[in-house]
Prior knowledge:
Elements: H1 3-21, E1 39-41, E2 44-48, E3 53-57, E4 64-68, E5 71-75, E6 77-83, E7 86-101, E8 110-120, E9 125-136, E10 139-149, E11 154-156, E12 167-169
Antiparallel strand pairs: 1-4, 2-3, 3-6, 4-5, 5-7, 6-7, 7-8, 8-9, 9-10, 10-11, 10-12
Amino acid sequence: MDDQNMKIKAFLSTRAMLLATGISTAVMALPEDAEQPIHAVYDNSELLLDEGIQVLYGSTGSPAEITQGTLKITGREITIERQNGEVRKVTVEGTPARYQQKPSADQDMVTAEGLNIVLDYDTQHVLAQGQVRFIQAANEWRGCQIDYYIETRRVTTPRCEDGEQAQAILPPRNNQ
């Protein structure tokens, strides 16, 4: 089988896998995102049918990636957990792991990066840990952990266990 046929086969099997795992059930954001096609790029994957888990593997230089509308998730390893055909949790590990999505048409893109990111679909919560940056518009928060609550649009940045304080960088009023 030539390289082009292998790529087509990998794309089709990935699309079928993502549809089967229900990844199109988007974390609350633009409604149009869930109607967009799902694209995945990765080096290899593993599907654990009995456990409802799909793992996409990439590398530091060539991360695994899932995109759907404004949602983009990248990392060295992306684990999708589902129950009864619906996505419950997506865990991304990387150096860094990245998440981005536009919460609504009238809001700027949200981006988060850290050593790992967990998207909990049930609680509409994004948890980023380890060397974290969270950015929306010109506002940036940094720390060892950031919790982003999508529905309430709340961001919390607790003090690190090692005592390191979190940081916020907010633009001056004339730049808003």
